[in-house]
Structures are given as structure tokens and as C-alpha cells.
Amino acid sequence: MKQKTSSQELLEKFCLDNSLQLKPVPRSSKPGRKTPDYILALHRRKVIVEVKQFDPNPEDRARLQRLRNHGSTGVISNEPGHRIRGKIEDARPQIKQRSICRKSAVLVLYDNTGLLIGELDPHHVLNAMYGEETVNFFVDETNEAQPIYWWHRFGGKRKVSPRYNTTLSAIAILLEVNESLEMDFYHNDFAARPFNPDWLRIPPVRHFRLGGVASRGGLMEWNEI
Fold first, then answer.
1. For residue 60, what is the enclosing H or E element?
2. Are 108 and 54 a contacting pair, CB within 8 Å?
3. Are 193 and 169 in contact, with CB atoms under 8 Å apart?
4. Nearest CA to 34 among 107, 100, 96, 109?
5. CA separation for the pair 193, 208 (Å, rounded)
6. Cβ proximity of 109 and 171 under 8 Å
7. pLDDT tens-digit profile of 50-109?
8. 101, 115, 172 from 75: Cα distances, Å
């Protein structure tokens, strides 16, 4: 039997603490076929749940060593959302296997690096899902006028769109806060089977949806719902 990851153990604890029914999905006997980790029962509905975690990579381990030796990790300049994009891609086969069952699907992410460097903060989630944040300015070719703000958009390297990853209903960030567990849900505007926030309205859970229209660009941010 495959050993559980830290994120799986914590998700199971979260569900147990909040009287939620979380059932492991048996591994497929078909070679190469991937299955999701769990099915979560909510109000007579079944939700697909895939769990991924960020484990320390060589750069993280080097930062941890600097932190121990010098009390500082140095400058961190990661591309916003780049590690989340990788996890979204990793989870696609598991989520799509059950898409024919017409179930909502949630990807749960957990930071297991020990650094708490913000890889799972709302800005990173936004950039991973809807694309790189870009600010465009109108520039006078004669250089006689100051650049004028023109357009604020997302789009490059996006992992959800009206035609891509519509089986992903939401990304949920599993957080340890003051020795307790919480979850923040970031909902996919393009989901074919949305996750209804009213299915999970409990104190340790918050829900967020994009403010603005993702498909047309413009200024966007997460709004709690």
C-alpha cells in the first residue's frame, strides 16, 4: 500500500475534524490509468478531490540551510504561479478520468517545503489559473509625453480558459493557521461543473471568485464570496 503524503494526512484530519465524509478512491488496475485521491460527499453530491504538495526542491533546501546558518533565506524572486501551474498539469489526468461522471473536481494544494515563502498565496493562484499579470502602457514615440496606463490583463501561461481545464472546478489551498487547519477555495470561472460554495460553508473554509471578466482581460482580483 502506498504511503500517504503529508498533505493527504492533513486533508483527512481536516475532514475528520469537520465531520466531512472523505473516501479514498481505489487505484486503477489498468496500466497507466490514473485515478483521483478521494471522493468528498457534500449534500448528497460527490466531489472529486486530487491532492498535491510542494516538497522541498534543491533551491528550497539551499534556502533552508541559509536560514539556519544566517537567519535569512536571501532574495526570493520566483515567477508568480509557476509551481502551481506544474501541479495543475500533474493533476489533469486524475481529474479527467472521472469527468464523465459529471462530478465537480477540486485540486487541493499544500506547502510542504517548510519555508512558507508564499508560493500558494492568492496572487500566485491567480497568475497560475488565469495567466501572467501584464500591464500595458501607451507610449508616445516622440517621448514628449509620459506613458499612459492603457490595459491591465492576464493571459500568458494560463491554466484555465473557456476551452482548457474546464474539468477543474476549483483550487483549494490547505493551510495550517495557529495549530489548526483551514482551506481557501479559488473557483474556476470556466468550470463545466462548478463547485457551489454553499456545499461547504463552515468556519475553516473561505471561498473566492474572480472579480472582473477573465475572458476579456482587465483589472482582476479575488473577491470573497
1. helix 58-70
2. no
3. yes
4. 96
5. 16
6. yes
7. 999 998 876 766 666 666 655 555 555 567 788 999 999 999 998 886 555 689 999 999
8. 46, 13, 27
For the four alpha carbons of 41, 109, 182 and 24, in that order, the dihedral sign comes to positive
In this predicted model, what pLDDT tens digit does every residue of 131-164 receive, in sequence order?
876 655 556 566 666 665 445 566 678 899 999 9
Stronger pLDDT, 6 or 59, i.e. the higher one: 6
Residues in CB range of 156: below 8 A, 6 or more apart = 131, 132, 134
- List, in order, residues 6 or more apart from 57 with CB less than 8 Å away: none
What is the pTM for the complete model shown?
0.84
In whole angstroms, give the CA distance from residue 126 to residue 76. Answer: 19
Which amino acid does the sequence have at 32? Answer: G
Domain locations along the chain: 6-130+157-218
* The three cell numbers locating residue 210: 474572480
**Distances in Å between the alpha carbon of 91 and those of 69, 193, 216?**
36, 17, 27
Give the three cell numbers for residue 44.
448528497
